[in-house]
């Protein structure tokens, strides 16, 4: 498994932007497929987006498609989630996840490493 630490969360007004970062350590980062998930109070964790380990494939939840973008910098062992046009319903704790696999994983059960989460709050 790899250790993951998210950062970049905060309070932003609706329509604003944030960029979350997730730094990995302990393993060869370029071997890992990465995902972003979120969990709002009283709700189940939901898939946000994912990127294959090559970076050539991505997948996004319909609710964020066109507004959120995942990228990765293997030299920095970091995956990013750029969030634009934020809405109050995007408020949640955001988690990154990883798994050593060539697959593009869109379900939480497919990942075996998780970060501690970072809070994103979007005010109306």
What are the key terms here?
124 residues, mainly beta, seven-stranded mixed beta sheet, 0% helix
What would your notes on this structure say?
The chain has 124 residues and is mainly beta. It has strands spanning 3-7, 10-13, 18-25, 32-39, 46-51, 58-60, 68-73, 78-83, 92-100, 113-114, 118-123. Strands 2, 4, 5, 6, 9, 10 and 11 form a 7-stranded mixed β-sheet that branches. The chain is globular. The mean pLDDT is 96.
Distance between the termini: 38 Å
Overall average pLDDT: 96
Helix content: under 10%
Mass-distribution shape: globular
Sheet having the most strands: 7 strands, mixed
The count of β-strands is: 11
* Range of strand content: over 45%
Label the structural class: mainly beta
* Rg calculated over all Cα atoms: 13 Å
Order of helices and strands: EEEEEEEEEEE
What is the oligomeric state here?
A: single chain
Low-confidence spans: pLDDT under 50, at least 5 residues? Answer: none
Determine the number of helices (DSSP H or I, runs of at least 4 residues): 0
């Amino acid at each position: 498994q790899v250790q993951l630490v998210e950062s970049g969360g905060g309070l932003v007004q609706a329509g604003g932007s944030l960029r979350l970062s997730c730094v990995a350590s302990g393993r060869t980062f370029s071997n890992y497929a990465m995902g972003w998930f979120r969990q709002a109070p009283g709700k189940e964790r939901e898939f946000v987006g994912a990127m294959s380990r090559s970076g050539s494939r991505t997948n996004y939840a319909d609710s964020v498609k066109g507004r959120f973008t995942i990228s990765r910098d293997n030299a920095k062992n970091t995956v990013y989630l750029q969030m634009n046009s934020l809405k109050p319903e995007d408020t949640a704790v955001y988690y990154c996840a990883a798994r050593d696999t060539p697959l593009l994983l869109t379900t939480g059960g497919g990942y075996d490493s998780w970060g501690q989460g970072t809070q994103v709050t979007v005010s109306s």
